[in-house]
Amino acid sequence: MVILMVNSELKTFTLPFPNERGERKIWVYIPSHSEDEKLPVIYMTDGQNLFDEESTEYGSWNVISAVENEQNNTGLSAIIVGIDNGNIYRDSELTPKCIGEIQHRDYFNDIFSPEGEVFDSFLTDTVIPYIENNFPVKKNKESVSVCGSSSGGLQAFFEGMEHSDKFGFVGALSPAFAVYTEDDWRAYLLSKVNGNMPYIYMYCGNADPLEEILMQSTEMMYDILPEVGYPYDMFNEVLKMHIMKKHGEKFSLIFCTHFLIKQGKKAVKILKIYIGKFK
After folding, report:
1. How far apart are CA 236 and CA 176, in angstroms?
2. In this structure, how many other beta carbons lie within 10 angstroms of the beta carbon of residue 34?
């Protein structure tokens, strides 16, 4: 039997974003695969930072290399969908309003207004249906993941809680949990946790003052989750001391590769839980 192969490809296109902000660029990396093969899919925030080394002063996450390396080493792969952020509206779009009163407002710009629910609608009502209708992705929960860093990590976590029936895995890297109080988080999670939650991978360092705040709030979340009934075997926490000099993409890209390749339910080998489990 002859197996026809499709070469890897990075595609870009735009989809209409709500709130009259025009078209939003979407990046889709499709690794090489057999012609009739369906692949797991990972939806990621900050699309312009995932593939283009020149896109930010911090550099790229080098996602393609991460997936190609895993494919070469194990034969496992996944389609990566990157959603561009809204530039000056980034933190607004990646910070939900419904969880509670915003803390640490001094870290946000003057036009900040939490509207993560708008991004949520864009992802679930526009992006995911388009991807599922036009790309060879698996649609079962165990094959669908969402990932982001900082405000993107917060939004990825929110997506997993809001759509526990849709996402099987959440990557919350340097997540901005600190924007809400512990009480607000506890009340929100008590209203969301059920018997079918996604696996959560949380990661943070403490190399600068902002990272220290985020690390403390990540530890807070690690304590809250079991209190609200989240199964112990469905989340883990990785803390790294002084791994980089500054909060940003260079900090995150190191762990992005780790998240894509090394995770497991006990923090061992991530495209193996992340992709291998989907086979």
Report:
1. 17
2. 11
Average the pLDDT over each of 100-109, 160-169, 222-231, 244-253 and give the range with the smallest value: 244-253
CB 138 within 8 A of CB 144: yes
* Residue of 40, 81, 77, 104 whose CA lies nearest to 247: 104
Which residues, including other chains, have CB under 8 Å from residue 110's CB and lie 6 or more apart?
A: none
Q: Which range has the top average pLDDT, 37-41, 112-116, 188-192?
A: 188-192
Query: Could you give the CA distance from residue 247 to residue 152 in angstroms, rounded to a whole number?
Result: 13
User: How far, in Å, CA of 166 to CA of 198, rounded?
Assistant: 9
> How far apart (Å, rounded) are the C-alpha atoms in residues 25 and 16?
9
Q: Which two tokens stand for residue 168?
A: 């099987």
Position 249 scores a pLDDT of 45
Under DSSP, the state recorded for 226 is: H
CA distance 163 to 56: 31
Q: What's the token pair of residue 128?
A: 């995911």
Residue spans of beta strands (DSSP E) within 61-134: 79-83
Q: Residue 215 is encoded by which pair of tokens? A: 């690390």
Per-residue pLDDT of 100-141, as tens digits, reads 999 998 888 899 999 999 999 999 999 999 999 999 999 999
Q: Do the Cβ atoms of 173 and 149 come closer than 8 Å?
A: yes
pLDDT of residue 78: 87
Interacting residues of 109 by C-beta distance below 8 A, sequence separation 6+: 88, 91
- C-alpha 194/C-alpha 213 separation (Å) is 29
Read off the tokens for 243: 């791994």
Contact yes or no for 188/160 (Cβ under 8 A): no
* pTM (two decimals): 0.87
**Burial grade of 279 (CB within 10 A; 0-12, 13-18, 19 or more):** exposed
